[in-house]
Design brief:
The complex is a heterotrimer of chains A (319), B (285) and C (604). By secondary structure, chain A is an all-alpha fold. Chain A has 13 helices and no strands. Chain A has two domains: 62 residues, no CATH class; 225 residues, MetI-like fold (Orthogonal Bundle). In chain A, helix 5 packs antiparallel against helix 6 and helix 8 packs across helix 10. The chains are: A mainly alpha (319), B mainly alpha (285), C alpha/beta (604).
Amino acid sequence: MKDFALARLVAMRLGLGLVSLLLVSLAVFAITSLLPGDVAQELLGQAATPEAVAGLRASLGLDQPGWLRYLHWLGALFTGDAGKSLVNGQPVVALIGSRLPNSLMLAAATALVSVPLALCIGITAAMWRGSFYDRLVSTLTVSVVSVPEFLVATAAVLVFAVHLRWLSALSSVSSIDGIVSFLRVFAMPVLSLCCVIVAQMVRMTRAALIDQLRAPYVEMAILKGAGPVRVIWSHALPNALGPIANAIALSLSYLLGGVIIVETIFNYPGIAKLMVDGVSTRDMPLVQACAMIFCAAYLFLVLAADLCAILSNPRLRHR
Amino acid sequence: MSEAAQPAPAPRRKRRRWPLAGLLGGVLVLFWLMMALFGPMVAPHEAGRIVDMDVFTPMTAKFPLGTDYLGRDMLSRILHGARYTVGVALLATLMASGSGLILGMSAAVWGGWLDMLVSRCLDTLSAMPSKMFALVVVAAFGSSVPVLVLSAGIIYTPGAYRIARSLAVGINAMDYVRIARARGESTAFIVREEILPNMTGPVLADFGLRFVFIVLLLSGLSFLGLGIQPPEADWGSLVRENIGGLAEGAPAVLMPALAIASLTIGVNMLIDNLGGFRRRAGGEG
Amino acid sequence: MAALLEVSGLRVTARDASGGEVTIVEDVGFSLERGEVLALIGESGSGKTTTALALMGYARGGCRIAGGSVRLGETQILSLSASGLRALRGRRVAYVAQSAAAAFNPSRRIMDQVVESALIHGTMTRAEAETEAVELFRALALPQPYRIGQRYPHQVSGGQLQRLMAAMALITRPDLVVLDEPTTALDVTTQIEVLRAFKAVVRQRGTTAVYVSHDLAVVAQMADRILVLRDGRMREVGETARILASPEHPYTQSLLAAAAPRPHGDGVVPEEAPPVLEVRGMTAGYGSLTAGGAPLITVLRDISFSIRRGAALGVIGESGCGKSTLARVIAGLLPMAQGEMSLGGEALPPAVEQRDRDQLRRVQLVFQMADTALNPSRSVGRILGRPITFFHGIKGKECARRVRRLLDLVQLPASVIDRLPGELSGGQKQRVNLARALAAEPDLILCDEVTAALDTVVGAAILDLMDGLRKELGLAVMFISHDLHMVRAVCDEVMVLYAGQRVELGSRASMAVEPWHPYTDLLIRSVPELRQGWLEEAAAVRAPEDAARRTACAFYNRCSVRIEGICDRTAPPVQAVAKGAEILCHRGEAELLSMLPPRRRHAA
């Protein structure tokens, strides 16, 4: 009975996530295909004859009503066909397919480094709140969060590539032939991304934990004679788990924004770079497909955060 | 501490000192606002004029922030760019916070289906990461100042809405609002006299935060070459066009980025200390 | 033999908003023999909790124990190191917090938390500790002592949690237990159960305890000695009997006077006084209306009463009984679904929007929390001026003159006119709150728990003021309260609500005479009296812990005289009883008289 209620809640969140994704796809399609006006005219230029424009329009399917075009587009996307690039005529799926693993690798490496690091810093800062260490962490994280990602990245290049000459400023995935070169290629982008995400995650983790440390049951634990480690591990952390999982998921969603800048600055061959190039050349099928991938990833993270919050709530787990 | 005495003696009016960080933040913000207005007038050179034969010169007395990749004076270019970075972001923030406040207030006061409808619509909008939305819009419409203001304004409306709505819902449930309702006051009076004055502090803080987000978003776009288009340049574009000087550690790359940082950190310091300001204003009002 | 606990010259300071240090506890000293219970009594801000926590060497955030000594046995607590304090807390001194609902960790099982201190200090193995815990659960009269430990805190009731917390404190058999307002958050009918359990355990185990409370009547049941604190200083200390019988310090005297409010007026309203408000068959709640015309979630069901000019009606019931909703329904904020209201003989539309300005003027609301009832960003002058302008169209100088007159009426100095509510004390805010209602020149004032958030002495002053105004201005007042003492002292008529239904309505005099509705009876028996020995004499009240199910009579599950097959199936009828009251019950007058335990000798 109680499991059923919980399962229903989870199922509802999943359903809502799917609806959101559908609405997002509608928004992406509307912005890129319906609102800007006549693509055929634009492709052929002002000098084109009306017959030529009409012909292209028909061949692109632009003479059909908007909702039908949307359904066609969505259906095709569902079967793995994202159309052809307007710039070089290659299938969009192939273009993305060659880049996606690189981006995933970057994201995975960043997550692997940043999550444990951020949790350690966040938890210790909360434990020793008000101390010099805590104030230092707070100041640093506020600064990092409120400066642009490209400042962090350029500063990293300046320090590690220009002054210390430890790492190369540009990344080339094809030149990986060993662990050292792997590190050299990945270190800079991962470092820059980590900076931003760790700062974000530390702030949220610290806030979530401090929120719990203020609760009366923590005072009670102290008055039972519990030491600081027990207070944190047995009392505050179990209750902060939901908020912290939430913080991790939401911080990782900043990865999506950060990766756009970082891939560009380091000329890293991932899909964010691909998308930015697509936007510059106004390659709509490519932009649409990339936007859907990013939005889906974002929604997935938000959904994961929500589910963590639901599952870690004792009131929902044990009715 | 005790309030047993009847009538209690008049409480001391506490005057809080303006905290140093808040003061510093205020000065930084004021400075950049001034520069957005008068920057081009105080700039030593024209923004587009090539004044030095050398490129990427380091800081000198003649060019305090060095020169860029064409040999233009960086100080002048940054001062000219302030208009774009601060001005465009300010417009977009006004739009986002303004519409967020109006929608949030209406949703809170009228509730019911209006609340449902607006909340659902804005939820959908916030189901897209902000940079992604901006990229998609720029891909579709090209990049121009109106497009940038509009898209940044729309992207950050849901956040402003959520804050304004939750504040207004909270205040709307307060007993003093109930009393006003029971007195038969009009909705306009309740919003103007009872709700709005009590949410100015948090709304102002949120305005500052949203301004920071928008500055970061727009300079990020410009850095990608998708924001303010040449020949005009905001600070993000300045970093982009001078990225070639990074290997030499030229000030032309770092200085515009630092300008952004000083603006955003300044705003952060200012709003973190708004509380002290509010208390002081309350004590004197 | 030296005393078990010896406190001397205790001083605790706190940082105020501007960073300076203020003393919140000054020169407090007392001693406690083994097996003795000492009560620390005082109002909010008196430093009683701070003092109690200092006994464990603990000071809350922003506070600091600045001086003095606390000796427990051979240990000087204030000079212990951090690890020394850890070894002491939970082992030799244990703490029972005010709100058990907040002091239990929501994500851990109750048993884990109850035995935790025993495991931290290694006094027992886990198995031994659990056996001991079950023993304590039984001693504290908790239901299902073997299974309750397996639950999570949100799965048990507030009264049970408070007792579980006592078990948590006692598990290590500490030398000293600090109980910090352990029953303040509970309803009276639950409080008596908890007090009885505490008392039994304390006596059985010979526990030495410090009991912190603001309620003299509760303290009279629990403590051997009383220490009165005010503004962080000791005012008086002595045997409980002596303090109750002949308090020496003027402050103690005023506390005692406020705790036993004398009746205001004669409680007789001239019959010919016309009714101001008449309510017939009021049903109200939330959600859409069902087929029968009642709302989906019904909060108030079939309520009828009237208030005459110059009279005071008290509405009493436990939290969640719908008494606050009643005020909102009459004010039109929550329009009633069924029933009729009339104001001064004319029909009163249910919703605010349908009422004309004169009808709005004649009914005014005064809320419980003066903090949230006054707009924090408007000055007192503006808050009071608005209703004058709104209802009477008076502006400028004349308005300012009226504001000053109102302030005079509620005994506030004219200098508060330019202040913001945040700059006033709690009592002053409540006076402004009252003045705003008076500004409309109403016929009826609805007071929702006006004194609940105030200290006893301040609250008593507000009630005196209201009583004076009522006579002076011929106002009708409805007092909504959970405090039977207060209602019986200031009201001419009393209405008892239970689960949204009017279970009893009668004159003040009738409230002192049997028979009562079984719930009224429970309520009257549960309110502690200001004398020692009351708790022992009070007849055991049926434990309200049966499985709750929906029944025709809402009180069925807790009723000691219920008739199975009737009370749970058929809605009870309203019957008039000879003492001059109406009671909602299946039992006849004679049955109620004979079945409920006989009335005590000491009148309330």
